[in-house]
Recover the amino acids of this structure.
C-alpha cells in the first residue's frame, strides 16, 4: 500500500510515516496542502492521511478538490478538534474517515489499512498460490508450512504479484506501489528484491521474468 502523509508538524509527520513504514507501507510526506495536491497529481496513493489545518492550501480545500476530481485514493482526515460538527463537515467535504488528535497509533494503522482495502479491488485476507500462504492481516508468509521471514519490501512485492493473478507486473509498477518517492528508478532495487524473494521461496521456482515486460507468478 502507498500512503501520502500530509501534516505540517514535521516531527509528527515523520513519526507517523516511520510507523506506517514499519507496517510495510510505502510512505511519502509533505508539509502543506499545495504539495499534497502536486503529489496526488503524480502518484497513485491508496490512502491520504490528511491534516485539516494546513498552510498554503487548507486541508478542507485539498479534500474538496481531490473528491471533486474523483481521486481514487481514500482520505483519512486528522484534526485537533473532535466535535461532531467538525467530523460532519470533514466527511461532507469528501473524507472517507476522520480521526481526532491525539490518537492511538494502533488505531491510525487499523484505519489506514481499512481504507486501503476499500481503495483496491477486494482481496482475500489470506492469499494462496502453489503452497504459499500470504496472510495480509498478520503480514506473515509461509510456503508448505515453512516461515519465509520476508522483509517488508519482499512481502509487498509478493503480495502485488499474488493479487495480479498471473498478470505480468512491470518493474515500474512494483517501484510505484511498493517503494516511496525517494526510490531511484535507475537503481536495481526491484531486481535485487525479486532475487532475494526467489531465494526465500525456494524450489520449485514461482516467479518468472518476462523479458522486457516484468514479472509474474508461474
Amino acid at each position: 500500500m502507498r500512503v501520502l502523509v500530509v501534516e505540517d508538524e514535521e516531527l509528527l509527520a515523520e513519526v507517523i510515516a516511520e510507523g506506517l513504514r514499519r507496517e510495510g507501507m510505502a510512505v511519502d510526506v509533505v508539509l502543506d496542502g499545495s504539495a499534497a495536491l502536486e503529489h496526488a497529481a503524480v502518484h497513485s496513493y491508496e490512502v491520504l492521511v490528511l491534516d485539516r489545518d494546513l498552510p498554503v492550501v487548507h486541508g478542507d480545500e485539498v479534500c474538496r478538490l481531490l473528491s471533486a476530481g474523483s481521486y481514487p485514493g481514500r482520505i483519512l482526515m486528522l484534526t485537533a478538534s473532535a466535535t461532531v460538527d467538525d467530523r460532519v463537515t470533514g466527511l461532507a467535504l469528501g473524507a472517507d474517515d476522520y480521526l481526532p488528535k491525539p490518537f492511538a497509533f494502533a488505531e491510525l494503522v487499523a484505519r489506514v489499512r481499512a481504507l486501503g482495502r476499500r481503495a483496491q479491488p477486494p482481496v482475500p485476507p489470506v492469499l494462496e498460490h502453489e503452497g504459499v500462504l500470504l496472510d495480509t492481516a498478520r503480514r506473515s508468509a509461509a510456503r508448505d508450512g515453512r516461515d519465509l521471514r520476508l522483509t517488508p519490501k519482499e512481502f509487498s512485492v509478493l503480495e502485488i504479484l499474488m493479487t495480479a493473478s498471473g498478470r505480468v507486473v512491470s518493474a515500474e509498477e512494483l517501484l510505484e506501489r511498493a517503494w516511496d518517492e525517494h526510490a531511484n528508478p535507475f537503481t536495481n532495487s526491484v531486481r535485487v528484491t525479486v532475487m532475494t524473494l526467489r531465494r526465500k521461496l525456494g524450489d520449485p521456482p514461482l516467479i518468472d521474468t518476462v523479458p522486457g515486460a516484468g514479472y509474474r507468478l508461474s
